[in-house]
Amino acid sequence: MTAISNIGVIGLGSMGLGMARSLLRAGLPVWGYDTRAEVSQAFAAEGGKPVEALIESAAASDLLFIVVVNAKQTEDLLFGEQGVAYRLRPGTVVIACATISAAAAQRIAKRLAEQQILMLDAPISGGSVRAAAGELTIMASGPAAAFERCESALAAVAAKVYRLGDEAGQGSQIKLVNQLLAGVHIAAAAEAMAYGIRQGCDPQAVYEVISHSAGNSWMFENRVPHLLAGNYQPRSAVDIFVKDLGLVLDSAQDAVFPLPMTASAHQMFKQASAAGLGREDDIAVAKIFPGIRLPAAANEEM
C-alpha cells in the first residue's frame, strides 16, 4: 500500500468540520467540501483547503471521510447524480461516518467493492467538541487493508478507534446500540428536569445534586447545562434522534425484538419535532412537558 497523500472530508457540519480541523492540525494533507459557502470560508480562514470541484478533488484522493446525515445522502453522493464512487481510483478508502443501519452499510460496501474501493463502516460518537479536539470515538468495521491505510488519519480525529470486524455492518450496529442509550438518556434527563421543576425544585440545584449522585448519566451531565442556560443552539438536534431511534426501531422490527423504552423516547422526540423544535438542541425535548417554565437565556430575562 502506498502512503496516504490526499485526504478529503465531505460534509463540514458540526462533526465534519472538527474532523477536518483535526486532520489539518496533525499536518495531514486534507481538503474539505460543503455546499454552504460560509462553512467553506470558515475552514479556509483556518488554513484549510475548501474545494468546489468535488468530483475532481475526490478522484485525486486516497482517502475520503464522508460525514453526512444518513444512508440516503451517503448513497446519493457515491452512486447518484454526482457519482463520486465511479471516479475514485482502485484502492481508495471511503470512511462512511453517518449513523445508518447495518444493512445499509453492507449494501454500500458491496457496491464500492465492485469498483475496487475499500470501505470502513465507521460511525462516530462524541459530539462537536470532541470532534474539534480530535477525540472522537469511532466504531469501525471493514477490511484490514483499509485500517492499515487509514491509521494516521484515524489517529488524528479519534481518541479511540474500535476495530469491530472485517465486514461492514458491525460498526453501524454498535452505533445504533449507542444511539438507543443516548436517546433514552436524553429523554430521561428532560423528563427528570421537567418533573423537578414542576415539583418546585431549583433547576440548578437539581443539576448539581444529580450530576454527583447515582442517577447521573453522561447525557444528563452534558445536556442539562444547555437547558439551564436556555441555549438550544443545536450541538445535536432533536431530529437526529427522530432519525436514529427510528433506525433502531426498524432494525428491532425486522428481528421481532421489543424495545419499549426506545419506542417511548422516540415518541417524545417526534412530538418535539412536530411542535417545530426539530432543529433545536436535542435537550429541547424538555419543552414538550406542560405546566412548567424552563430557564430562559440571559438575554431573554432582561
Automatic annotation (TrEMBL):
Do the record's keywords include NAD? yes
Q: What is this protein called?
A: L-threonate dehydrogenase
What EC number is given for this enzyme? 1.1.1.411
- The yes or no answer to whether the keyword Oxidoreductase is present is yes
| PROSITE patterns, alphabetized | 3_HYDROXYISOBUT_DH (PS00895)
Signal sequence span is none
Keywords on record: Carbohydrate metabolism, NAD, NADP, Oxidoreductase
Source species, domain of life: Bacteria
Which reaction is recorded as catalysed by this protein? L-threonate + NAD(+) = 2-dehydro-L-erythronate + NADH + H(+)
Recorded family membership:
Belongs to the HIBADH-related family. L-threonate dehydrogenase subfamily.
One Pfam family from the record: NAD_binding_2
- Name the NCBIfam families for this protein: ThreonDh
Record the organism: Phytopseudomonas seleniipraecipitans
- Functional note: Catalyzes oxidation of L-threonate to 2-oxo-tetronate. Can use either NAD(+) or NADP(+) as cosubstrate, with a preference for NAD(+).
Sequence ranges assigned to domain 3-hydroxyisobutyrate dehydrogenase-like NAD-binding in this UniProt record: 169-288
The record, for PANTHER family, names: 3-HYDROXYISOBUTYRATE DEHYDROGENASE-LIKE 1, MITOCHONDRIAL-RELATED (PTHR43060), L-THREONATE DEHYDROGENASE (PTHR43060:SF17)
Residue ranges of domain 6-phosphogluconate dehydrogenase NADP-binding in the record? 6-165
